[in-house]
Amino acid sequence: MENGSSESRNKARLAIMELANMISVPMSLNAAVRLGLADAIWNDGDNSPLSATEILPRLHLTYQNGTIGGDPENLQRILRMLTSYGVFSEHLTNAGRKYSITDVGKTLVTDSDGLSYAAYVLQHHQEALMRAWPLVHTAVVEPETEPYVKANGEAAYAQYGKCEEMNGLMQKAMSGVSVPFMKAILDGYDGFKYVEHLVDVGGSAGDCLRMIIKQFPNVRQGINFDLPEVVAKAPKIPGVTHMGGDMFQSVPSGDAIFMKWVLTTWTDEECKQIMKNCYKALPVGGKLVACEPVLPKETDDSHRTRALLEGDIFVMTIYRTKGKHRTEEEFKELGLSAGFSTFRPFYIDYFYTILEFQK
């Protein structure tokens, strides 16, 4: 610490203080979702700047005697924190600080379908998941067992299957993330144009298939393939058949196979097995369309790189210590090892990349 200029040492101390207190950011975001701040401020599109005192009545926090509850000072502290990360916009007025919703904050606003990224935030901060985070270092010391398993006694997906509340939140979270992403890729990717029979592996509630079929009416049959306990709760969708099974055993046949955020949570060998099963289920010329986070070759401090690397650590901690986000070259090698002859990436979304593997 003695080397370097006074300014560089100051910056270093400031940087490590920020990193050490970084937990305040996701916890404040979690608090904002639990309080319903985004919907309260957005107010069906009004989005007029409001003070913490003006926001409180919209949160419907009442005491037993019927009076409005909540602490405006502490609420403002949360609003200021999240303003520094672009979730809210701060307006300094003669009456004090007021807040409105930014484009980032709007992702937490409930849309006409009852969806937003709010469920994704809540899903990531459930008590069982939070217990795993102090054990991240054990992924280095004992990589055979996930920190989540060490903290909870069983794997995350096993708990999802047993706990209706966790499974329901997972499905809602995936829907909230999938719908805006699918809107983006369907506007920029036409790879389903000539597909008649489409299989979605790990399709959860079937939202992706529903949107693809709506955009591409040439898709006459969609199969939503996931674990039996997952598809058992999936809603009826015209043109879609929900099918339970195990992708490590086999995958339903189709002209094309779609998957989103599936390969990330598995090891290289497991990914090869999944992709080999997809290869077997496709006709010659058929293709696997995988949407996955793709790491850049070099590490930088951009928002995109940080978001991808943060997601990678989440996978390592919660799902699989050797499951991971991969680079484009790593995905290409997996596809070739599974038998696919060609590989093409499409960078349309900032988080997900469309990876096309053709048989």
Brief overview, please?
By secondary structure, the chain is α/β, with parallel strands linked by helices. The chain contains 17 helices and ten strands.
List the keywords.
alpha/beta; eight-stranded mixed beta sheet; Rossmann fold; two-stranded antiparallel ribbon; 359 residues; Arc Repressor Mutant, subunit A; 17 helices
How do the strands and helices of this protein lay out in sequence?
Blueprint: H1 6-20, H2 24-35, H3 37-42, H4 52-55, H5 72-83, E1 88-93, E2 96-101, H6 103-106, H7 118-124, H8 127-130, H9 138-141, H10 147-152, H11 156-162, H12 164-188, E3 197-201, H13 207-215, E4 221-226, H14 228-231, E5 240-244, E6 256-260, H15 268-281, E7 287-295, H16 303-319, E8 326-327, H17 328-338, E9 342-346, E10 352-358
Parallel strand pairs: 3-4, 3-6, 4-5, 6-7, 7-8
Antiparallel strand pairs: 1-2, 7-10, 9-10
Helix pairs in contact: 2-5, 2-7, 7-12, 11-12, 12-13, 15-17
Domain O-methyltransferase dimerisation: 17-111
Protein name: (rape) hypothetical protein
GO molecular function: O-methyltransferase activity; protein dimerization activity
